[in-house]
Amino acid sequence: MLTHLDAQGRANMVDVTAKAVTAREAVAEARIRMLPETLQMIQQGGHPKGDVFAVARIAGIQAAKKTHELIPLCHPLLLTSIKVDLQADGEDCVRIEARCKLAGQTGVEMEALTAASIAALTIYDMCKAVDKGMVIDGVRLLEKLGGKSGHWQVSA
Length: 156
Hints:
The chain is of the alpha+beta class. It has one domain: Alpha-Beta Plaits. Helix content is 29%, strand content 29%. The chain has four helices and five strands, in the order βαααββαββ. The protein has a five-stranded antiparallel sheet with strand order 2-3-1-4-5, covered by helices on one side. A hairpin with a 4-residue loop joins strand 2 (81-88) and strand 3 (93-104). The longest helix is centred in the C-terminal third of the chain and has 19 residues, at 109-127. It is elongated, with a radius of gyration of 17 Å. It starts with 21 loop residues before the first strand and ends with a strand. The mean pLDDT is 92.
């Protein structure tokens, strides 16, 4: 059984030594809601700090690679692919989707969730001077493929 507790009830990293190496993939999303004028500024490239989506994409990718440094007891993983997509969703929202892949012994759900979250936080950081009321929400796992538990997808 996989658990973060040892025989004495102390927290420890799960031992995945005996698990088979399989292809694994996870998709997560986050949303950041803002004033329509803020989103318009981002889309028109008028932000004084540069291309907000490009910076957020890079931040999400970097965060996925460092998830084990941010989340206690996460395994350091050699990710083979990280993709972060950002797009307007209506006139006041940006939807972020992060997809992480690897061939390994443990899943990549935390890496995808971290990538989406950090991309949203980066947008907040870059735009807070013009819109302090932005709201990050909807951070969730959308899909997980591979490993012993197989395929899981959020219900519509």
